[in-house]
Each structure stands twice: as structure tokens, then as C-alpha cells.
Amino acid sequence: MDEDTRPAARAGRPGRQAQRSAEMRQRLCQATLDVLCEVGYERLSTPMIAKRAGVSRGAQTHHFSSKADLLVGAFQHLLGNWEQARIAAFGTTDPPRVPLETYLRFAWREIFGQPSYVAALELMMAARADTRLGERLREALDNWALRRGAVWREVLRFSGLREDDAFQHINLCLLRGMAVHRGFNHDESDSEAVLEQWIAMVRHLAVVPVAVAGPELMHNEAP
Predict the structure, then answer these.
(1) Domain ranges in the chain?
(2) Which one of 69, 134, 144, 173 counts the least CB within 10 Å of its CB?
(3) Which residue has the higher pLDDT, 187 or 31?
(4) What is the C-alpha R_g of the chain?
């Protein structure tokens, strides 16, 4: 290597190392989610995760020193995936100005109805039995919950619906319940039918007509 290029090469190493480290953490987090979905929290082990990620146990413990650290990191990774899905669907407008029915379909098809949501359900159940883990998961959820609340309030306001927290949680409980029941459905159309029935019911709650944006509905909804 030419003497003049060596300092530049050395200067670039920290950046490459940071990138490799971030990629390794993402692999481990994704592997944790995959294993959670396949075997559940009770059977999950760190050797399973290392094997799924294709890394040594030493590399795993270098990035996440404990099983709890892995679970929290995986949860943060999942929240980031949800945020990226929202940006991909609605752009960087924050909060997005879309009607509730459009947002409900997005939330089901891209978040709650995805196989990866099983990992979130597993972590919710784990938090009941492990107080410290539950505290750490709730801490990880805090910032996401604030953004989620702002999005739902704007979606409800834009749709001419009540912006209160109770109605927001009704929608979230419906989606979570659909996710739990998904494994018992005869086919995927069962969940879609429930969602469309709920949307039909919600339309009657609107207090003002709304000009609906987006490819699915391009007309004014009645109150």
C-alpha cells in the first residue's frame, strides 16, 4: 500500500467497524424475533439465537451480554421495522393525514397481521412473569407509544372521529385480538372480513364528512 494512502485507510476503519457492528446487532435481533415466533419465549435460548444468526456465542455476548439484553434489543428492532413500514406507506409526514380505514388496513396488513407480530405477543406475555424485563420493554416502548398516540389522534381527527385515548385503544385491542386469533382462522380472509366489518361500523361514528385520500377510496364518506 502506498504510504500516502495508509492514514486514509486507517481513518476509514472505525466507520467500517461501526457498520459491521450495527449489522451484527441487526442479525442477532432478527434472529431473536425469528426464534421467538417459532418456539416461543419459554423455549427460547441464546444458543438457538446464535445458531440462527450464524454467529459464535462469543460474538453474541460481545453485542448482547444477556438474554434480556437480546430481547430488549430485538423489541427495539421490531419497533424500528414498524416505523419504517409506516414511512414506506405514508411518507415522512408525521403524523400522516390519512383516514382511519386506510390506516387500519395498513396496521393490520403490515404490522399486526404479519408473522413477526407473534414475537411482540410473546414478549408481552413474558413481561407478565419477569418484572424487570417488563420494565425494560416498557421503557423501550415509551418513545414509540408517544409517536403512535400522535399518529392515531391525527388519523382519528382527520376522519372526523373522537380523538380520545379510549377509542384509540379499542382499535388497538381489536388488531391485537385479530393477531392472537389469526392462527385459528381457516384462511386469511377471515381476518380481512372482521376488519372490513369493523370499518363499516366505524363509518357510522364519523361526525363530519371526510375527503378520503389514497388509492383504495377516492370519494367523500358520509357522516
Answers:
(1) 6-221
(2) 173
(3) 31
(4) 21
